[in-house]
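CHAIN AND CONFORMATION:

***
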Amino acid sequence: MVVGISKQERLKTKEDLFEEATNIYDQLVEWRRGFHVFPELAFEERVTSSRVFQILKSMPGVEVTQAFGETTAVIGKISGKREGRAIMIRCPMDALPLQEETDLTFASCIPGVMHGCGHDAHMAVLLGVALLLSKRREMLDRSVVLVFQPAEEGLGGAKRLIDAGLLDSYNIDYALGFHFWPKYGYGKLLLKPGIMTALSDRFHISIQGVGGHAAAPHLAVDPWTIIAHVILAAQALVGREIDPTESAVISFGHLEAGEAHNVIPEQIDLWGSLRALNVEVRDFLQNRLEEMVPLLAKTFRGLGTIKYHRNYPQVINDERLTSLVLRIARDSFGDENLEILDRPLMAGEDFAFYTQVIPSCFLLFGTGGKYWLHHPKYDVPEDLLPFAAGLEAYLAFCLSNMLSMGEDEIG
C-alpha cells in the first residue's frame, strides 16, 4: 500500500510546479545556452562543473559538493524530513568530439566539440528541478540528490561515482534518469519496464601490413584488403551466425589510415561498437571477432589484433518503481502523453550502472525533430525545457512522499 500525500495534494503541487517551471523559461534557456556554447569532453568538464556549482550554491536549502570522487561531478542535496533512503536524479555533463553545424547563435565556440546529445539541456532542466524543489523542501519526506555526472559518453562516469561511494555517501535507494529523445512523439514520456537499452561495447582493430606504392601492390601487403574483409565478415557474423530472433548490431565509426592517395599504408586502425540485448549473444560475437580478425589478416599475409572493451551493461528499469512512475504520470497527464515502448532501444547508456545496484527508472522525453542524437545539426527544442523540469520535479516530489520509509517494497 502506497502511503503519503493524497492524490489531490499531488495534483495541486503538480499545477504549482508546472506553472513555476513555465515562469522560469527564460532562466532555463539562459542556462542551457551557456552550457551549449562552451562544451567540454568527458572528465574535462571543469568550467561546466564550476558553473553548475555556483548556480546550485545560490539556491537556498541545497547542499552542494564539487569534485566528488576526484572527478568533475557536482552533487546537490535537498534534505527531506527524514534522513536516509534518498532519491537520486542524474544528468550527464559531457559533450561529444563533434564539429557543430547547427548555425545557432549560441553554437559551440570550441572547435571539434559539441553538445550533440542534449546534455546541455539536461543540465539546465536539472538546475530547474533544484530551483523548484528547493522552494518546497519542507514538503519533502525523503531527500532528493541531484547528480551532475561527468563522462556519460563512453568513459563510464556513472561507474566511477559508484566506485567512489556515491550511493552509500548519500544513502541513495532509488535512481531516476532522463534523456531527450528525437524521432519520437514531441512532448511524450517514453519508458519501458525491464530491459530498456542494449549493452554497449567498443573495440579497436589494428591491421599491420607492408607499405608500398599504389602502382605495385604485389610488392606490398595491403591492409585495405584485409580491413575490407574484416568489415564484411563482421556484418556476416550478425546476419549469419546469430539467431534472427535475437538483436545485435556491429557498427564501425572511426578509421585511421594512410597519408597519400598513391601510397599503400603500413597500418590501418578501425574502431567500432557492438550492441546486443542478450549477454550470451555479446559473448559469442566478442569471441568470434577475436578469432576472426587475426585469422583474416593472416590469410592475406598481414597481422591483425583486436582490443575489446566491455563498456556499458543494459539499463534495466525496476518493475515496481517503473510501475509507480507510470501511475503518477498517468494520473497526472493521461495515457495520451505516455508511450510504453514495445521493445528495448539498441542505444547504450551508462545510467545502466546505477540500475545494476539499486531500483532505477530511465525515462525519455520525445522531441520529434529531423536529426538523430550525435548528429552535428542535432538540437533540443527549448520550449520543452519547462515541461521536462516540471515533470522531473513532480516525479521526485511524489516519490519522496510515496515511497514509505519503513517498507522494502513499493506498493
